[in-house]
Design a protein that fits this description.
276 residues; alpha/beta; 10 helices; 30% helix; globular; binds zinc ion
Length: 276
């Protein structure tokens, strides 16, 4: 068993992330139109019938704009906190609406989804990890003002992560945004910079992390080539992908990586050394 993942779109114009096994899938956020979601999933060979739930991270329109129609058309349950729903301009019928709490483990077939709170200027924002019953773990960490302890803790468990790399610090500083907006983006409750994302990756990646999908890039304060170049220098064994704000990524197949013999010997030696 393993998981299939894709970003259907990523950026301030819309976010929708797909995580699924062979029979069940969940979407994290529904920030592109239902029609675009259908079109992109079809192009990728992903079945919308497999989508058993949509989880909503927060109420900003780039995360919810397609939700109402998508959920209604396909009768898909929506997991959203009551506080986040209060921040939306629509309601979800009670028979399709499920509340969730941070650190609760929600089972959707063979998938387990766990939310945790994040730093972002929204009512009740959450990040998610999605785990398959064979232990493969995917993180969806976008719209995070900083890589707090919670992000670090969960990042270390993942085989693949959609990680925000929103802005280049110099481009934001030199850009045309008004001061209050610059401060909102970079002030710890907005978005994660390339440098902060890189620091998290370099300091806390586990050797099982096979795919890093840099996500939610700013249109004005970042460049995909820059992000790719910065991260490729430190990639090691991890595949670096930059998600687009214009089209879907390909589908990545994430396996549980076996611990290699060298790693076992290394760990054994480390234990031996720690005894002295
Ligand atoms: Zn966003
Ligand atoms: Zn947001």
């Amino acid at each position: 068993m393993s998981l299939f993942i894709a970003a259907l779109n990523s950026g301030s114009n819309g976010n929708c992330y797909y995580v699924g096994n062979h029979t069940e899938a969940v979407l994290i956020d529904a920030g592109i139109s239902c029609r675009e979601t259908e079109k992109r999933m079809k192009r990728l060979g992903l079945s919308i019938q497999n989508v058993k739930a949509v989880f909503i991270s927060h109420e900003h329109s780039d995360h919810i704009s397609g939700l109402e129609i998508l959920s209604a058309r396909y009768n898909i349950p929506v997991y959203i906190t009551t506080t986040t729903l209060q921040g939306c301009r629509f309601s979800i019928p009670a028979n399709r609406m499920y509340n969730f709490s941070a650190n609760e483990r929600i089972r959707i077939g063979g998938l387990t989804i766990k939310a945790f709170t994040k730093k972002h200027d929204a009512c009740d924002p959450h990040s998610f990890i999605v785990q398959n019953n064979d232990g493969v773990c995917i993180g969806i960490f976008t719209d995070i003002g900083k890589a707090c302890e919670q992000v670090v803790y969960h990042f270390r468990q993942c085989n693949a992560v959609f990680l925000e790399a929103n802005y280049d610090e110099e481009m934001l500083a030199a850009g045309s945004y008004p001061f209050h907006l610059k401060r909102r983006i970079s002030g710890g409750n907005g978005h994660l910079s390339n440098a902060a994302a890189l620091e998290l990756f370099c300091a806390h990646r586990h050797n099982r992390l096979t795919h890093l999908i840099l996500s939610h890039l700013s249109k004005n304060n970042n460049r995909p080539e820059l992000v790719e170049q910065v991260f490729m220098q430190h990639a090691g064994q991890t595949k670096i992908i930059v998600a687009s704000r214009y089209h879907e990524t390909e589908v990545y197949h994430i396996h549980q990586t076996a611990v290699t013999t060298e790693q076992i010997i290394y760990q054994h030696n480390a234990v031996q050394l720690s005894m002295f």
